[in-house]
Amino acid sequence: MSTQQRSALFIDGANLYATTKSLGFDIDYKRLLKEFQSRDNLIRAFYYTAMIEDQEYSSIRPLIDWLDYNGYRVVTKPVKEFTDSMGRRKIKGNMDIELAIDALELAPYIEHMILFSGDGDFRSLVEAMQRRGVRVTVVSTIQTQPAMIADDLRRQADEFVDLVHLMPKVGRDPGERNTRPAGENGRPSRDFADRAPPRSNPGLESRYGIRQGPAPDESGEV
């Protein structure tokens, strides 16, 4: 019987982008997924980002489309534009609430949460997950000045992993062309994304593909 713990990735897209930019490398999301699949029984990988919908072309769209076809659950919402008291145009696109809700709803089905973010606002979420018996690993970096992770978030986590140490395993080869990965026929690979979740509870199934009731079988599948 498999002894691997059931885990889920929660990626704060904007925060991870800022962190990798500060460290001077790019994430290879295919390698990242394989890395964490090899460590645990990874049942979900979420990616959160806000998007400007009225733009004719968004530079992040190719990445979002690729992630959506290749094993990630992409969660997006339109950014909000407003003018502050000084008359300056501001853009707001915080995804904290969406990430927190997904994590708390998934908590009964996982033993390990991996959070890619250094945002201190997630400290309360980490604490709430721990109260539910979920071990939390936070991935960010302290190798920049200032550090990209809030100190209280780092202290709250069960484990902190510096992204610098993951770079050899999840970083993109600088020599690669800056295009999204594709399948053998030139189309995005759908091998992982095409695994249809079992149907049981309509609410949880539609959002997460997780069924209620019996424990997972020996294969570790839900």
Describe this structure in words.
32% of the residues lie in helices and 21% in strands. The protein has 222 residues and is of the alpha/beta class. It has a single domain (6-177, 193-208), classed as 5'-nuclease (Rossmann fold), CATH 3.40.50. The strands form 2 sheets. Strands 3-2-1-6-7-8 form a 6-stranded parallel beta sheet, sandwiched between helices. The protein has a two-stranded antiparallel ribbon with strand order 4-5. α6 (151-156) links the parallel β7 and β8. The longest helix is centred in the first third of the chain and has 11 residues, at 13-23.
Q: What is the structure about, briefly put?
A:
With 222 residues, the protein is of the alpha/beta class. It has helices spanning 13-23, 29-39, 61-69, 96-106, 123-131, 151-156, 163-170, 202-208, and strands at residues 6-12, 41-51, 73-78, 80-83, 89-92, 112-116, 135-140, 159-162.
Structural shape: globular
Largest sheet: 6 strands, parallel
Helix content: 25-40%
Q: Give the oligomeric state.
A: single chain
Our estimate of the beta-strand percent is: 15-25%
CATH class: Alpha Beta
User: Can you list the strand order of the major beta sheet?
Assistant: 3-2-1-6-7-8
Q: What distance separates the N and C termini? A: 14 Å
CATH homologous superfamily grouping:
5'-nuclease
Number of helices: 8
- H/E element sequence: EHHEHEEEHEHEHEHH
Integer tally of domains: 1
The residue ranges in which pLDDT falls below 50 over 5 or more consecutive positions are: 178-222
What is the structural class?
A: alpha/beta
What would the average pLDDT be, to the nearest integer? 80
Rg calculated over all Cα atoms: 18 Å
Which CATH architecture would you pick?
3-Layer(aba) Sandwich
At CATH level 3, the topology is Rossmann fold
